[in-house]
Design goal:
By secondary structure, the chain is mainly α. Helix content is 59%, strand content 12%. The chain is built from six helices and three strands; from the N terminus they run H-H-H-E-H-H-E-E-H. The protein has a three-stranded antiparallel sheet with strand order 1-3-2. The two termini are 37 Å apart.
Length: 118
């Protein structure tokens, strides 16, 4: 954490020392995990996968047919989504079935709500 600096504040703008301290703590925080989550969400195919899984859990074979992506490419995207706890999977006979986690579902709902209000 860096040393606190005196900040020149111009009249009539005022900033209490308490709020300055709070802002300093926030600015000093490590946000790498959040930044990475946004990078994962920034790819259109990953957002489309999430939105499709919002409708129903799906096997990779369905996603391959619907997207024209190769199995290996979709597996890569699904792994990134899984690593960020947005999706989970289970085996059903010879199929790997993917579904949204609670976090993935609530994140999608929040995104949908905010973008519908814009």
């Amino acid at each position: 954490m860096t040393d606190k600096q005196n900040i020149a504040v111009f009249e009539p703008y005022t900033l209490s020392q308490e709020n300055l301290d709070k802002v300093h703590v926030i600015i000093s925080e490590d946000v790498d995990d959040i930044v990475y989550l946004f990078k994962v969400l920034s790819d259109p195919i990953r957002l489309k996968i999430l939105r499709a899984l919002e409708i129903q859990e799906l096997c990779v074979c369905v996603l391959v047919e619907l997207t024209d992506y190769k199995y290996s490419a979709l597996s890569y995207h699904l792994k990134l989504l899984k690593d960020e706890n947005l999706v989970e999977s289970r085996r059903d006979k010879s199929y790997q079935i993917y579904y949204l986690t609670g976090f993935g579902y609530s994140l999608l709902k929040s995104i949908d709500k905010e973008f519908k209000s814009v």
